[in-house]
Amino acid sequence: xxxxxxxxxxxxxxxxxxxxxxxxxxxxxxxxxxxxxxxxxxxxxxxxxxxxxxxxxxxxxxxxxxxxxxxxxxxxxxxxxxxxxxxxxxxxxxxxxxxxxxxxxxxxxxxxxxxxxxxxxxxxxxxxxxxxxxxxxxxxxxxxxxxxxxxxxxxxxxxxxxxxxxxxxxxxxxxxxxxxxxxxxxxxxxxxxxxxxxxxxxxxxxxxxxxxxxxxxxxxxxxxxxxxxxxxxxxxxxxxxxxxxxxxxxxxxxxxxxxxxxxxxxxxxxxxxxxxxxxxxxxxxxxxxxxxxxxxxxxxxxxxxxxxxxxxxxxxxxxxxxxxxxxxxxxxxxxxxxxxxxxxxxxxxxxxxxxxxxxxxxxxxxxxxxxxxxxxxxxxxxxxxxxxxxxxxxxxxxxxxxxxxxxxxxxxxxxxxxxxxxxxxxxxxxxxxxxxxxxxxxxxxxxxxxxxxxxxxxxxxxxxxxxxxxxxxxxxxxxxxxxxxxxxxxxxxxxxxxxxxxxxxxxxxxxxxxxxxxxxxxxxxxxxxxxxxxxxxxxxxxxxxxxxxxxxxxxxxxxxxxxxxxxxxxxxxxxxxxxxxxxxxxxxxxxxxxxxxxxx
Length: 600
Description:
Elements: E1 11-14, E2 18-21, H1 34-41, E3 47-55, E4 60-69, E5 79-87, E6 90-92, E7 95-97, E8 100-104, E9 108-109, E10 118-121, E11 124-126, E12 136-144, E13 150-155, E14 164-168, E15 173-176, E16 182-183, E17 187-191, E18 197-206, E19 212-216, E20 221-223, E21 225-230, E22 235-243, E23 249-258, E24 267-275, E25 280-284, H2 292-300, E26 306-310, H3 318-321, E27 326-332, H4 340-351, E28 355-360, H5 363-370, H6 372-381, E29 384-388, E30 395-398, E31 410-411, E32 426-429, E33 434-439, E34 445-451, E35 456-460, H7 470-485, E36 501-504, E37 510-513, E38 524-531, E39 539-542, E40 550-553, E41 560-567
Helix pairs in contact: 2-7, 5-6
């Protein structure tokens, strides 16, 4: 458990790198994990493991394994062959247990990295006399301790009569033009059984109108079905063709079967093609759940075009994200999520002026729990402070006058939503660029938006899919994407004919008052103070007066000056002009990015 940094139980690890925490009543069937397994089965390996012989005869057993390099150039400096002895059907306490670990052999460093090289490993081991020889098996796997990734595995079990294996080269998710055609890299199907059989490949796709796809080899395209006979050890190599026709995306599924065996779990490869001219990219990061359907339905009513990236096996790179004006990232109830690669890609996308809508009820809890750079990223890019997990509150109020949430009050339980609000987070804005847009109550907040002057973020600390009706989901999506994609609203200034006044209240407090901004779109004011004589020294006293044209200020020591600066939802305006009618400089610690609009 310490090797993988597991924090609790149950916790599953796939391929050494993908963790899944928690389990429901359906875990015993394996159905919640099927999509993860299917996504990994087609992953190619740079190594091939072959069991040449195995002997479990006591008191000393032995195994002979070859490690063959199938793709050169791999870093093997921290890679090891690990071997586990298991026993099936072990009776204990009246119960029967399967695939029980009996021993782990001494790990062997991998020393081969050039194409075609073979490293032979032939350790011996002690066979406990209580073990049942006929039920013993050795499972061997190659693992890189730097990344924890498993690169190959093999079992000492004899090959079955019928065995279909496959892998897919290259990325199975691509972004490209909405016209022309695109060929994915090859996938290969192997007969690793002992008998000849007929293998069939079927293609289905969720195509937008006018789109299509097909199965091809190097010479011919066969349409949506391909069939061939393979003898033991033979293989066939194919690839997919997609023909886009306009903005959108398609998810295509290749299902592989053999005539003599019906697999319990379908053997499938999933491919996505996303045109690079859609308005919004949905990143489906909810594990094997289908919460992305709530996002699709909401976007269908907004007029924005979209495509879908399935995060289950690989996350989008910054170069992929940069194709899209806005990203909708949905974590649902899935964790772990937003790994280091995801955070780096999102951060670089935002630094380049991106727009992000992100939703998930455990994002804050998870990244705060990880701490360090993970939580710092959360504060720097989502501009939130995690306050508490599981508010146990399922109603949220919008903020009057806010461009995203004004007039939209939400229920995140029941109705036709996903009804999955287990742990909605309580969050606060982490800095002056962020503001609350939905609150559970006067003291707890469920969503914020942030505009830094470079990028914009809308962050829901609950699941969008849990909103209890389609109309509210569409309204939330519409107002969020509208705000994210809209050019920033500039702010004005307080006209000179409505001067800044200062009075002393009966309680000895200085009271500042001023006239309205020249722009009706301005909704708030910030107050800055500095030292007379140094007219570039002003720093924020308060960043918001809650829209009031009056504020109390302290009686300071020394000579002070005060500036009132109006703000729109996105920017702050003018600090006024000096005696030469030159704009005063913005504060080095400005509450918002400055963007001055024109007043008429």
